[in-house]
């Protein structure tokens, strides 16, 4: 499985930095936040019925990048679209 290139990691770090998301963990106030080396792809549903209907079928996904605390494990997800990084998800699919 392809890992993030140095350029991709730098683009993510830059986009998060522009939103003032960096530095120490907001939960334990101790650990450093690191970019998770891969995309998170939560899916969007509006209730239990849709969970069953979308299993193996059409799904609405919400590509995100995650950061996690090295000390406590706190993890936060950020929308690639909102960060202006949706193209990274498309490019990653080419290598899948
Ligand atoms: Zn922490």
Number of domains: 1
- The number of helical elements comes to 4
User: Distance between termini?
Assistant: 7 Å
Helix content: 25-40%
Strand content: 15-25%
Uncertain spans: none
The structure class reads: alpha+beta
Strand order of the largest sheet: 1-2-3
Shape: globular
Tell me the series of helices and strands, N- to C-terminal. Answer: HEHEEHH
Largest sheet: 3 strands, antiparallel
Number of strands: 3
Bound molecules: zinc ion
Average pLDDT for all residues: 87
Structural Rg: 15 Å
Topology:
Blueprint: H1 6-18, E1 33-40, H2 48-54, E2 64-69, E3 75-79, H3 80-83, H4 86-94
Antiparallel strand pairs: 1-2, 2-3
The structure holds zinc ion.
Task: Write out key terms for the chains shown.
alpha+beta; binds zinc ion; 96 residues; 3-stranded antiparallel beta sheet; 4 helices
Protein model, in words:
With 96 residues, the protein is of the alpha+beta class. The protein has one domain (6-94). It has helices at residues 6-18, 48-54, 80-83, 86-94, and strands at 33-40, 64-69, 75-79. The protein has a 3-stranded antiparallel sheet. The protein starts with 5 loop residues before the first helix and ends with a helix. Bound molecules: zinc ion. Zinc ion binds at residues 25, 27-28, 30-31, 69, 71-72, 74.
């Amino acid at each position: 499985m392809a890992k993030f290139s140095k350029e991709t990691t730098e683009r993510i770090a830059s986009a998060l930095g522009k939103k003032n998301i960096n530095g120490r963990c907001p939960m334990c106030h101790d650990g450093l936040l690191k970019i998770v080396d891969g995309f998170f792809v939560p899916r969007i549903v509006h209730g239990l019925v849709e969970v069953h209907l979308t299993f193996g079928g059409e799904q609405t996904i919400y590509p995100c990048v995650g950061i996690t605390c090295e000390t406590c494990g706190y993890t936060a997800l950020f929308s690639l679209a909102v960060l202006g990084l949706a193209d990274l998800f498309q490019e990653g699919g080419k290598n899948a």
